[in-house]
Amino acid sequence: MTQEMEATHGDAAASVGSRWPEVAVAGSLLAIAVMVIVDSLRVGIGWADDGPMSGYFPFYIGLMLMASSGFILLSVFLGWKKVNPVFADREQLSGVFAMLIPMIVYVVAVTLIGIYLASAALIGYFMRRHGKFGWLSTAAVSVGVPVVFFLVFERWFLVPLPKGPIENMLGF
Amino acid sequence: MEELGNLINGFSVALTGPNLVFMLVGITLGVLIGVLPGLGGANGVAILLPLTFSMNPTSAIIMLSCIYWGALFGGAITSILFNIPGEPWSVATTFDGYPMAQQGRAAQALTAAFTSSFVGALFAVMLITFLAPLLAKFALKFGPAEFFAVQLLTFCSFVGMSKEPPAKTIAAMMLGFALAAVGMDTVTGQLRMTYGFPELLKGFDFLIAVIGLFGIGEILLTMEEGLAFKGKTAKINPKVVLQTWRELPRYWRTFLRSTAIGCWMGITPGGATPASFMGYGMARRMSRDPQSFGKGEIEGVVAPETAAHAAGTSALLPMLTLGIPGSPTAAVLLGGLLIWGLQPGPMLFIEQKEFVWGLIASMYLGNIVGLIVVLTTVPWWAAILRIPFSVIAPVIIVICAIGAYTVHSAIFDVVMMLVFGVVGYLFKKLRYPLAPMVLALVLGDMAEASFRQAMLLSQGSLSIFWSNGLVGGIVTLALTLLAWPLWTGLKSWLRAREAHYRLGGVR
User: Fold this and answer.
1) Closest Cα of chain A to B163: distance in Å?
2) Are A62 and A84 a contacting pair, CB within 8 Å?
């Protein structure tokens, strides 16, 4: 999504066209279709002694996915020069990435240090960076929310949540 | 009048102390979910589902369905006070609800919205009460071919009726089916499409998909809009409520029309969102004063809310009787039934009488409780939306992550949730519909099983789908719906060509 500065002439708000996102999504769907078909062929799409084999149904699903995503891809290419509706303007996209990137970091952190510390960090980051809260209220909310979740899940419903080395050290 | 006896039994199940508490908890959580952006009926129920695994199924479904009613009520609050639809089905409510709030008539708008939601739901529940047992009795005669035909009809009607491009509807649906097929084949025990990843043995859980697609995807979409919540305050006092109630019977025609639209759209998998738009559109078209719509006309609040709630409620009718959910939230509830060890479908009405009628009775009670709760607690919910988004957003992400994790206690699911979130965002932006994908993911195994059983019966011949009038009729109807966009597309293409030639090829 790096190119496409179509709307620049005269218009101040630069925006990203939806051609490349369309190609990316339809292309991925096409790739998934190929994976489905290949694997269905591997497990067999015909009949065994006891009835249809495992690939019997998914094979046709794969074919239909291939046909529909291929059609979408084709119509994007056919209208390449003419049609390029706005996907989102730059400002909107930066908003989306301001959310997406911390979210990716958060999920990676959850796998490494457990959900409690990662959640506290995520809430704290957002409150400081976007909410411009003071340190005191930031600390209160970012510690308080994980503690509440700990009490509700681990104590009340007895559902354990992922914990990391630090919680282990504290003896949970 | 066997139904009435059953219903009274159902009330005796639903009216016990613990179940009333679950109802109240469910409604409150549901309104909260409906008010918060990023959390909705479908993913809210999905997140809370793991907490009910150990509960008694009847209490569990009462609580979860009450979350659904609460979310349906709650969506209206943000639409009217903040001009932000908390739920997709309350978009149409903003058209007249927010102008009313701007004119200082927020309390009337809210009362009208809640009351019409209640009326729509009430009619839909009555429809379920009397139609569901008949439909279930009828469906008892269904074989695998008939079940597959009904499933086919469900999916084809998505293609025929959705506003999204047909190719994208089919692609989204097929992606759902493909993801459902990943993992172990339940019939032969063979592994499919795992490509050597042990994490994929279990396949893709639709609960994770729902949390990602609707929760994370929605948060990303909300980030585009910028995050200033500028709302109106509202206090509802009994005087305004009574005054509005006195005014509402005047719109009985709108109520009836929207209820009919809603019930139809709920039973066929149109869902609450298109129902609310259709309800609004019809009310404006039929109105004597269409110009007043969009400027704070109370009828413009009544029409979409009635239709949305009627659709949301009647979506449970096909889920209970045929095992085919009429909306994504109903699909999640269906997944819950399977997890609690109940097989949805006609046998449910015979084997699990207490469960079914307890649920139906709880729909009456839940909506009454819901109406009272929302009418009395509106200022409270409005206050929640004054919490800055920079606090709400990360908390919602944390809730989604916890919800995804607790389904199978697997960290991999949290990663998948994020992937589905990005997919949900891209799909929304590029107009791929999410509902058919979720439904295909839920129904994939069932559809495959009934298709294979039908093929076994006929030794692989497709002619079984026309072997009797019923199955043939359903399949033909399904294929007609599937071909419908093709036909309209061809027609407009021909017309364009004709116009082109009439102009003598002048460009």
Assistant:
1) 16
2) no
- Tens-place pLDDT, residues A103-149: 999 999 999 999 999 999 999 999 988 888 889 999 999 999 999 99
Taking the CA of residue B56 and the nearest CA in chain A, the distance in Å comes to: 14
CB B12 within 8 A of CB B362: no
Contact A57 B451 (CB under 8 A): yes
Task: Check residue B415 and give its pLDDT.
Answer: 94
Question: Could you read off the pLDDT of B341-394 as tens digits, one per residue?
Answer: 888 888 888 888 888 888 888 889 888 989 988 888 877 877 777 778 788 889
A43-82 burial, b at 16+ Cβ within 10 Å, e below that, comes to bbbeeeeebbbbbbbbbbbbebbbbbbbbbbeebeeeeee
Sequence-distant (6+) residues with CB within 8 A of B458 are B145, B464, B467
Nearest CA in chain B to A122: B394
Cα A27 from chain centroid (whole Å): 17
C-alpha B231, offset from chain centre: 27
Whether B398 sits inside 8 A of A56 (CB atoms) is: no
DSSP string, A1-65: -----GGGSS-SS-EEESHHHHHHHHHHHHHHHHHHHHHHHHH-SSEETTEE-TTHHHHHHHHHH
How far from B267 is each of B118, B131, B152, B177, B272, CA to CA, in Å?
A: 18, 11, 15, 22, 10
In this predicted structure, the answer to whether residue B274 has a pLDDT above a threshold of 90 is no
Could you count the other beta carbons within 10 Å of the beta carbon of residue B482? 19
A114 lies within 8 A of chain B by CB: no
CB atoms within 10 A of CB B351: 11
The domain ranges of chain B are: 2-141+202-226+256-415
Please give the residue of chain A at the shortest CA–CA distance from B394. A123
Q: Which of residues 211-250 of B touch A (CB under 8 A)?
A: 216, 219-220, 223-227
What is the torsional sign of CA A32, A34, A36, A39?
negative
Predicted pLDDT at B507: 43
Q: Which two tokens stand for residue B389?
A: 């988004």
H-type alpha helices, B268-388: 272-286, 299-314, 316-322, 328-339, 348-351, 353-384
Q: What is the largest CA-CA distance in chain A?
A: 71
Output the CA–CA distances (angstroms, integers) from residue B348 to B127, B141, B313, in the order listed.
18, 14, 18
**Residue B174 corresponds to which tokens in the numbers above?**
């097929």
Mind telling me how many Å the CA of B47 is from chain A's nearest CA?
12
The span from the CA of B476 to the CA of B495, in Å, is 27
d(CA B266, CA B128): 11
B195 touches chain A (CB under 8 A): yes
